[in-house]
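To assess whether the prediction recovers the assembly geometry, we first specified each molecular entity separately, as shown.
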Amino acid sequence: MKHVANWGLNIAALRGASYADVRVVAQWSRALTTKNGKVGSASDAESVGMSVRALADGAWGFAASAELGRGAVEATAAQAVEIARASARVKQEDVRLAPEKPAVAEWSTPYKIDPFTVSVEQNIELLLKIDAELRSVAGITLAETNLNFNREEQWFVSSEGADIHQTKLSTGAGYAAYAFAGNEIQKRSYPNSYGGQWQNKGYELIDDLKLVENARRIAEEAVALHRADQCPEGKFDVILDSSQLGLQIHESVGHPIELDRVLGMEANFAGTSFLTLDKLRTLRYGSDLVNVVADARQEHGPGLGTFGFDDEGVAAQCTPIITNGLFTGYLSSRETAHTIGENRSGGTLRAEGWNRLPMIRMTNISLLPGEKPLSLEQLIAATDHGILMQTNRSWSIDDKRYNFQFGCEIGWEIKNGKCVRMVKNPSYSGITTEFWNSLDAICSRDAWILWGTPNCGKGQPQQVMGTGHGAAPSRFRGVRVGSAFKNN
Amino acid sequence: MSSPRNTEYEETARTDLMLTQNEAGEIFNRIQKLSTADEVEVLFSGGRFSLTRFANNTIHQNVAEENHVVSVRTVFGGRTARAFTNKFDEESLRQVVRSAESLARVQHPDPDLLPMPDSSEASGRTGESPVSTRTVPSRHFEGTAGITPELRAEGVRKIVAVAERHKLTAAGVFSSGESVEGIFNSRGLSRWHTQTSAEISITMIGADSSGWQKANSPDVGNLDPLALAEVAARKALDSARPREIPAGKCTVILEPAAVLDIVGFMFWDYSGMAILDQRSFLSGRIGTKLFGDNITIWDDVAHPLQVGSPFDGEGVQRQRVALVESGIVKRVVYARATAERMKRSEYKDKVGPIEATGHGFALPNEMGEMPLNIVFAPIGDPQSLEQMIASTERGVLVTRLWYIREVEPFEKMLTGMTRDGTFLVENGRVQGGVRNFRFNESLIHMLSNVEAMSAPVRSCGEESFDMVVPAMKVNDFNFTEVTKF
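The predicted structure of the complete assembly is given in tokenized form:
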């Protein structure tokens, strides 16, 4: 495929581009679902194409085509340069790229079992077994399961000499049980809501998740929620399980640290950020216990934000985002690094596919675990009165990322160190920095899980990207609980 | 759109890049010959799309793409599956057929799977009841298909000039595209739809305020970047120095974009499959009065302000369907198989008319169907936004809503934020900007408390699909928190 990319680079140079890169990308996916004892959908998909990103007259142009013939590739490269010149008609200053030593490399996701080699029959059998377990519980009115496998192969070549071949693999699985009765629909999901757990791993993830083993408990909880009391309203100490905390990190740390948002580039759609440039190394983001990193390296784990190189050829890195509570870093790119005084990109530019422009995306944005041994059971035992909330049900945050509200599928009231009752419709809300400053306990490494969020939307045209979020259950003091249901 | 036609974009389109119905028909014939399945269905989609994005008064992203996707569904004795590819060479077509067939063969037979529709059934000519359809107007405009990067840049330059004149910063998009959608099956069905689209969205940003406008149309002549920019700028200027007022229940005036973004969350539930799955808030409520007398809602693909193809994922003609009449939920929409299941179900006497309405998604899928061409009926005494403001003693004017999510599914309680132009209204006048609110509001409660409505207009937001909706003045809207800006 390198020859295809070179056709594009040559034409971009001939048309006057001062910089160009070409990505040739092939993506394959398999999606299997069941619903109430039947296969819901079964599909395979492939998408192949190439794109050219070019700088001309100090501005960007981007063009993409599914055609890989020489004529189409050259026309696409010429179009990218033509578009760049049109962009230059409305600019304030020229684009500046931070220097990057061109990499020549091969990289692939480590895995044990290629999920595409596991037979569809075996997968359907697994999903129907889970489905049967869920529906064996009286009161379950709807059971849904899913398995998803993705493989992406990319050739990246730049006019500076970068030449990178990268193959990424991801696997996802999950299920949900619904119970409808009276005027109420309750739901429980495993191992997480909205598609379950996703990682850059092979089929070995499926065995790790113990899907069948947990199905009956999940279904029983969905039914039991109908008998549970409404979650009380007021200020409480709140313990979040690791999956909910992963989403809390995503929304109230991951998005506000995106430097393109901070610089106003996303103002029309995703919004901006309260983390203006003056807050770098001055804002107390959280309590002393809060340490957050943006780590795309394999040693961080098999997150959806793990890779060898980003989509402008910058090697995976670990950037300290919050250090002992102090805000210390943004997610940056070659174009934006200079705005924070950096002379190298943080390596976070990624695209959904061959036909999308790479943009700053979260890698693995993780809250590091507590250093002292602490299990969830020990944390509950050390809590006088609070609410434990598990598994996200709703999420919303303003366009500068201050005010948030999350709902969870299930809650447990804690009194004197014990979970004393199940509560339904738990929700909490707050202001980002006030919330992170109220954190007073984080469970340790044994309880830390690297969650995958497969559906992060950003950009125009919108791109969906997978991100990773490591978290261990944590406690927050004096959090507003239940205002979602106030006056309703 | 009532504004005069903008003629500056009238150029000739490049047509060589678009898949035609004849070409698609030839590809279908090749696929049919490659398949050994009992039945074969092929969907085509794609086209070309360009988007010029600006922020900080600069074009910072500017993209174009061309792509067509073919998907093949095969059926073997009640077993079905689908495979997709965007490669059209012989080997790729052979491979996509092989994938669809191997996936289908290992399924369990689905007793609810129907034979594919023929042309007669898909057009509704064999239905038991008269089909309520109208001719869909042409939605393909040469002027839109021919927009160049230079023309989009010129539109952006005008928007930025407005921003600079008002000492504001502009961000937004100007996009254009041309798309095809087609379906062929082995029972002789052949449907094809072409459409163009253009969209402008603008956010004007001041030191402590912002304003927003967005519009789209198949005909770029209906879009006026200058007018949109001036309104967005006025909102940013008028909401400067926002004051904080406490959250609580109050009267709100929701502009059409705010209405569509919130009401859009209920239309997944107007589906026969959602009733069968017991995941719809309409379970047990069809035929009851759920909303105010002034709420009447249709799904109507042929409405002159609507867009989209006139057929569904199986090629069935989309019918005009009355979903709500004078606050009473009358019925839901159906794909073919869902209608047959509903006729055999315990709910069959409680859900109103049951028939395939042409709203099904491509098979196989778990969701069934959904109305996607929502039109709120006009009322006898529409009020302009200005009239609604003039009649309001104290309330909040909302330009748009953001990050809306469902908090409770059966009362359809939603949360979200106001954004980009939120104003205090007192004594019949807009008094200035206020800090943005979080709401937690039941859609049932909201649509039961609509005091006044404007004439419906085509509107677009970011949280829901485009609709024809009015602005609404709503009493007792529940704001629960205030944010910091």
